[in-house]
């Protein structure tokens, strides 16, 4: 997916809000794919024969770190949506 180009003409307030909501939705979809990939990684490791406990612990640590990073990004996206919702409620701002 490519980055959107620069807008050459001013966009409306409504379009700006729509663009922000769209960007949050795309970021959430990407985070969802990351979490699915982490789930698949754990499944492959846990179903593999003769897995050492050290391998399981390292995988668990890796997944835990990724989940924490995703949670942090979700909090940022939540704040972004709250900002947008405040702007929707204040039509003249």
For the structure shown, list the relevant keywords.
93 residues; mainly alpha; 2 helices; 77% helix
Brief overview, please?
By secondary structure, this protein is mainly alpha-helical. Helices cover 77% and strands 0% of the residues.
Query: What letter string, H or E per element, gives the SSE order?
Result: HH
Query: Beta-strand percentage?
Result: under 5%
Low-pLDDT parts are none
Looking at how many chains there are and whether they match, the oligomeric state comes to: single chain
First-residue to last-residue Cα separation? 32 Å
Determine the structural class based on helices, strands and strand pairing: mainly alpha
Largest sheet: none
Q: Into which percent range does the helicity of residues fall?
A: over 70%
Shape label? elongated
Number of discrete helical segments: 2
* Radius of gyration of CA atoms, rounded to a whole number: 19 Å
* Chain-averaged pLDDT: 88
**What's the count of strands?**
0
